[in-house]
Amino acid sequence: MDENKDKACHHSLPGIYQPRHPENTVLYQVFQEYLETWITQTQDEGGYVPSHVEKDFRKYLECGLLCHGFARARCTCGHEFLVAFSCKGHGICPSCNTRRMAETAAHQVDHVFPKVPVRQWVLSLPKRLRYFLYHNPKITSKVLRIFLDEIRKQLLQHYQSDSDNPVKIGGVSFIHRFGSSLNAHLHFHCVIIEGVFVKDSDSQITFHKLSTLTEEDIQAVQERVRLRVLKSFKRSGLLEDHDVENMKTWNGGGGFSVNGTAHIHENDREGLERLIRYCARPPFALERIQQQPDGSLIYQLNKPLANGQTQLKLTSLELIDKLAALIPPPRIHRHRYYGVLAPNSPFRASVTAMAGQSLAQGAIEIQTTDKNDEPVEQEQENKPKRPPNRYLWAMLLARIYNLFPLLCPECGSEMQVIAVIQDKPVINKILESVGEATQPPSLSPARGPPSWDDYNQDELTDENGQSITEYEFNQCVSW
């Protein structure tokens, strides 16, 4: 009995953290080998590598390497280990993107959303319009406002009241610039509270949970969004009159798609966190990239394409090219709050103060306002201070993977970070003492496309098995 109990306790303990080695992954080795070649090729072909893209790529090559700095953690038993710095990139770094995803979800579950039902609304637009959204943030914001406004109107149709009191909804929207097959596809994921907030008086607001929406409600939102977006593009001069009229006749929603099937119950906090992680996910999954014996790369798709294709076969330069197109421009918000959760909403502080608590048709006291109707902080002696919005790296890992990185593998005690090392001579001295590399992996220099002399000409054939000439080789060769 005691042995079984010990085994059960052992399995309930967090796992032991294993430091990652990004330099051993396929993605890192691709950038190490081909980044300089990709930059040179793009420039030689008349292209342009945006500075924020090149910066993000080079920062990724430094992420997780001890030679660029680290923190020292020590246990009371004397055991030590080193934790490398992250690059904090916003583009392709799998580690930093995963941390940001987990941190966003944890913050919104712990500090933003009360215990209320929510629904995920997804809007996808025709390919003809995506180009404008992808390259013009103002157009993107305008389409998102139309989408959220139509969701609000549909929710208000389910709220029956004769009162003239102001009615608000709330939610958070995520702007995705990528599709599931490493393609540029700008679309929207919105997590909207399925209910309305009504200002009953000057001192309180009340939450009213609404009846479950039907498929007809979702289709109604899709049709109104389609007409309003086309009208907006016509008014902005981005589409001609005849193009708009033609697109209105397209079948199957005219390329517009609104999905609202994902619904989370008010008490399913784990489900809410999983949903927000999905909405805040990185543009690709590192574990889906595999290298073939011939040097080509395979990216496994999470769902088949329309033609049944389940994987992409790419060269290293093609992979870098695809990833470069997915990196968002600087100073662009990944997610935006809406309604009562918006930063300038007078109700935000009151609603978010109820995070993790059930509203259940109850009234919420709102903070008083001054003469200019600006919110004034109320002092509450008995109210505990809320924890910081930013989560420690160790707590995020424990929350996601059930492993605590500061757990000593020798004695099981909690380790403490005793120093942060950034001075290069000190870094080298410590790494030499523990047998770690003091220099990062070197980047391969740029090289030109393959030449006729690099191959055995007798083995070069076309798709029909016929031998090709040197002229034909030079016509079809690529970097």
Characterise this structure.
The strands form five sheets. Strands 4, 6, 7, 10, 11 and 15 form a six-stranded antiparallel β-sheet that branches. A four-stranded antiparallel β-sheet has the order 5-8-9-16. The protein has a three-stranded antiparallel β-sheet with strand order 3-2-18. The longest helix is centred in the middle third of the chain and has 21 residues, at 215-235. It is α+β, with helices and mostly antiparallel strands. Residues 1-13 and 368-389 have low confidence and may be disordered. It has helices at residues 2-12, 26-44, 51-60, 94-111, 127-135, 137-156, 215-235, 241-248, 269-279, 316-326, 348-352, 393-401, 424-434, 470-476, and strands spanning 15-16, 70-74, 80-84, 118-124, 167-168, 170-178, 184-193, 195-199, 204-209, 257-259, 263-264, 289-291, 297-300, 311-314, 335-339, 363-365, 403-404, 416-421. A hairpin with a 5-residue loop joins strand 6 (170-178) and strand 7 (184-193). Helix 4 crosses helix 12 (393-401), helix 5 crosses helix 6 and helix 6 packs antiparallel against helix 7 (215-235). It has three domains: 2-92 and 396-434, no CATH class; 94-280 and 334-378, no CATH class; 449-479, no CATH class. It has 14 helices and 18 strands.
